[in-house]
Every structure is written in C-alpha cells, then in structure tokens.
Amino acid sequence: MIAHKRRDGFLGQRMIMLPPQLLKSAIKQNPLLSQLYISQIGYFPKASFHYRERRNGCSDNILIYCQQGKGWYVLGKDYYEVKANEYVILPAGSRYMRYGADEQDPWTILWVHFSGSLLKELNQLFAITNSSGAKPIPFNEKIIETWETMYRSLEMGYTIPNICNANFLLYQFIASFVFSGLNFSGTPDTLSAKDVLIAETIRDMKLNLNRALTVSEMAARQSISASYLTQMFKSATGRSPMDYFIQLKMQVACKLLHNSNMKIKNVALEVGYQDPYYFSRIFKKYMTMSPELYREAGWKEMGLKE
Question: Which residues, 6+ apart, have CB-to-CB distance to 237 below 8 Å?
Fold first, then answer.
C-alpha cells in the first residue's frame, strides 16, 4: 500500500548524509577529495516497503549492493530487478528513477552515493549506463569490511583525516565491484567456473609471452569457443583477451628496456614479435612513446644518462 512506502526508518538501519557545505569545505582543504567522494552511505536490513522516487534523477552515482532478498529499480520506463548477491550502479543524471524493496522478500542492502569531478570519466571507463542492469557478484568479505571502515570513519566525526580515509577507501570499494572478476585469490574449490577459466587463461598467457598466441588458440586450450572466451574475459577484466595479452607483453618489454642493454630487436623477440618495427609501433600505441625513448627516459631517471 502507498501509505506504507518509506525512504528510511528501518529497524537496525545505519545511515550518514554528509552536509554539502561540509564536503565543499573538506574539498577546499584537500583538493584530492574532489575527484570522487562519498555524499551518503547506508545499510538497510530487511527494508520492508522501502521506496524512493527521484523525479529529476540524482546528481550522484548510487551503488546498491543487495546482500539478501530482492528489490527493483526503474529508469525512465525501463524496469530492472536486483536479487541477492547482485549489485547495480545507477549513474548520475536527470532521468526519472525510482527503486525499492520487493514486497514479499524485501532486500537487505549496503549503499553508497558518490560524486566528484571524475564521475563522468569513471562511468565511461566502466560502461556504467542507464541500461547496465544488475550484475552478479560472488560474496567477498572484504567488501563488507571496506564499507564498515568507510562508515566508521565518518561516524567518528567529520574531521579531514576521517573524511580522507573514508573517501580514499571508496576507490577500493568501487573496485571490489567493477573488478570483481579479477578476484582470483581463492582456491579452485571456492572460485566460480568463470573465475577459474579466466585465471587459467591469464596464467597461460604469462607462460607464452614469447609467442604470438591467437584468441582461438587460447580458447582451444580451455576447450571453449573464441567468442565465449572473449565474452567471459571482457566481462571479468573489461578488456579483450588479445588486448590483455598485449598489455602483459608490454609490461615485460618495459622491464627489459629499463633494466638491461638488450637490443630493441631482441626485446621484441622476447615478447613474441619477429618484426622489431611492428613491435615498436605496438609499444608506442600502448606506452605513448617509442621503445628507444622509453629506455632513454628510464636511464635518465636513474641518473645513468644526462
């Protein structure tokens, strides 16, 4: 019933809303905070009849992590569901939105509103759009710990150190979601099948950096199709398998250029490029400078060359 709908006031809830003037003052004292900062943070357990309507959208990104139960949200005319062990990041904007708990199985959620001068770039980088939908995320205790530390820092008082601590942890908190596919620290028994597949593919890449592996070869080693590998890999890492492979090659090339007198053509061979000119073009594309200039800049930094 409409009369039961409520924005907050749930038994056991925790919520902090930082005053805009306080944030403005904190940013003035520490400009680093301007890039990304928390404006609101909260926890709603079993939030029966939770309902929020924002007719003019929201100037913040809203990250909602559903731990239990179910919920939903509407952006414009599009309806989406959010289930347990899923999260959604609603991008800042003026589009009409509303969201709330499922009537039969109300959600338990951790949530954070965040804004900043880099918000647009962050949304573009991680393809956070109005149509992204909820995404699954394996349970990760560190997510809870990071949220808890952010909350407690702000709860202890709005001093600059407390605000800085909470906001610097915001980067880690966001990363826990957008890079959840890179969490390969568990054992094979605790990792999902997709995590194992991605981890084994990356391990295989590292063992074959001196070769010119194709995506089809990578996929064949896992007994899957190239299209399926590409889909899973981009979902987990944000990059295609080949782009990731080349990045690994460039990391090794950088180390060799920085730490040895090895000729450029031999560096190219070490990372699987028979043609040193093609290697130089790829290196410049990824590192924004030629191998020669990269080496020279590194040696100058170490004081080995004037």
Answer: 179, 181, 182, 198, 244
Read off the tokens for 241.
Answer: 């398998």
How far is residue 12's CA from residue 38's CA, in Å, rounded to a whole number? 21
**Residues in CB range of 135: below 8 A, 6 or more apart:** 86, 87, 88, 177
**pLDDT, tens digit (0-9, with 9 covering 90-100), for 6-36:** 888 888 899 999 988 889 999 999 999 999 9
Per DSSP, the three-state class of 128 is: coil
Chain-centre distance for alpha carbon 146: 14
Dmax over CA atoms of the chain, in Å, equals 76
Tokens read off for 187: 């054992």
Residue matched to tokens 């680093």: 32
Whether residue 63 contacts residue 174, with contact meaning beta carbons closer than 8 Å, is answered with: yes
- In this structure, the strands spanning 14-17 and 78-83 are unpaired
pLDDT digits (tens, 9 = 90+) for 96-152: 999 999 999 999 999 999 999 999 999 998 889 988 889 988 778 889 999 999 999
| Closest to 240 measured CA to CA, from 227, 223, 224 | 227
Residue 204 backbone phi and psi in degrees, to 5: -65, -40
Q: Which residues contact 40 (CB under 8 A, 6 or more apart)?
A: 15, 16, 17, 18, 60, 111, 112, 113
CB 38, CB 62: distance < 8 Å: no
Residue type, 221: R
Residue 68: how many other CB atoms lie within 10 Å: 14
Amino acid code (one letter) for 158: Y
